[in-house]
Amino acid sequence: MTQRDDLPRLTTTVFERMSRLSAELGAINLGQGFPDMPEPAELVEAACRALRDQSNQYPPMRGLPALRGAVADYYALHQGLGISADEVMVTSGATEALASAILAVVRPGDEVVLIQPLYDAYLPLVQRAGGTVRLVSLTPPHWTLDLAALEAAIGPRTRAIVLNSPNNPAGALLDRAALEGIGALAERHNLYVISDEVWEGMTFGSAPFTSTLAIPSLRGRTFKIGSAGKLFSMTGWKVGWIVAAPRLLAAAAQQHQFLTFTTATPLQWAAAEGLALPAQWHQSHRARYAAARERLVAGLTAAGFVLLPADGTWFVVVDLATSGLPATDDVALAEQLLREAGVAAIPVSAFYAERPEQGYLRLCFAKTDATLDEAVARLTAYRATGG
Question: Is the pTM of this model over 0.90?
Answer without folding.
Answer: yes
